[in-house]
Amino acid sequence: MRGHGGPVRALAISADGQSAISGSFDSTAIRWSLTRNAAEQVLRFHSDAVNAVALIGDKRAATAGADGRIAIWTFGKTEPDAVFEGHTAPIVALAVSPDGATLASASWDRSVRLWPLAGGAPRVLDEHTQNVNGVAFTPDGRALVSVSYDLSVRIWPLSGAQPPTVVAMPTPLNAVAVGTDGEIAVGGADGNVYFLTASGARAGEVAAGPRPVISIAISPDGAHVAAAGIGGTVAVIDRKTRALARTLVGPGLPVWSVAFSPDSRTLLTGGADNIIRRWNAATGESVDPILMETAGDPLAAYAGDRGAEIFRACVACHTLGADQANRAGPTLAGIFGRRIATAPGYNFSEALKQLDIVWTPETVSKLFEVGPQAYTPGTKMPEQRIGSEQDRAALVQFLERATRQ
């Protein structure tokens, strides 16, 4: 399904499987008919990327974005019914409680907020020490699970004043889902999916791929986990055997969002090429011919270049040439010798503007050695690191060639 003018960052499917909602870097959300493969309504409110969406019953939805605001919509209306404000950084995930009474939001301001949908002040959970990237309710509604760049999973009891259960993890975490049996699945920046029991005990791990997992979903029947990666593939994992069942391969660009249909037979993915694709979850085959359409490859001229292949994970957000526009991130044209947060025409955060960094081969290499959150705190850039010194050198050499003005 086509309609967005930017990467599809978030997806949610209705309980009857008839409709879906998507959020995009283009700052809009779209409500779709899955029976007609057509857009039914474009929701315009946010001033920045729409990073998260959630359906509230049959006729309402929530959208949240990099502008730090949450909008509550009734389908068919052109303006939100309510706007929740309080986060001071991008909101990147939403979840609705099983009883439909509470909306949870995860933000890069290091907090989780619990918003009563009937109105009232939110409850703030602020013990994470880095960006919070994912949030999910347990199926009984008694607890909330959050994951963060701070290498932890936190399981928050929602009644009383009990502190959360904190589970230390070996990698920054980008996404979380909870199965109907209470098992927790989290997606790591190391490309692994980690499984935890409802109480937080480690229960296995599966390598989904070599690149960070950035979205995760558990099928309603509980049989599979879909882990979407920044490398452009979706790993479908058998939960019972903890084995990779199949890999969905699209056009090679990052897959930002993934969602199962209620019958667990179909999988929707949202990609960096602005398209929502539909897959047969059992076979891994594309459902519609459009699924395998590919846009022109922006790196075709660099075939065989190791640095270009490493950069492929970055093309969703960054262009290279002086004649190309900013995307979710600034163009990299002429980056070397330029001070951070000075690329023309891009709205940088105040935190980045205060940093004393000039982009050189050494500083770009350092960015990927320690990670964006440590080297450039306040960035909107997804967390990813390149552990190999040789790969970092190849990336820098590629950028030196490709970004000359």
UniProtKB/TrEMBL annotation:
Question: Do you know which Pfam families this protein is assigned to?
Answer: Cytochrom_C, WD40
What are the WD repeat spans here?
A: 1-42, 43-73, 84-115, 125-166, 248-289
State the InterPro entries in the record.
Answer: Cyt_c-like_dom, Cyt_c-like_dom_sf, Cyt_c_1A/1B, WD40/YVTN_repeat-like_dom_sf, WD40_PAC1, WD40_repeat_dom_sf, WD40_rpt
Q: What keywords is this UniProt entry annotated with? A: Electron transport, Heme, Iron, Metal-binding, Repeat, Transport, WD repeat
CDD domains this protein is in? WD40
User: Which residue ranges does the record assign to the Cytochrome c domain?
Assistant: 302-403
Gene3D superfamilies found in the cross-reference section: Cytochrome c-like domain (1.10.760.10), YVTN repeat-like/Quinoprotein amine dehydrogenase (2.130.10.10)
Q: Is Iron found in the keyword set? A: yes
SUPFAM superfamilies for the chain = Cytochrome c, WD40 repeat-like
Q: Which GO terms describe its molecular function?
A: electron transfer activity; heme binding; metal ion binding
Q: This chain belongs to which protein, by name?
A: Cytochrome c domain-containing protein
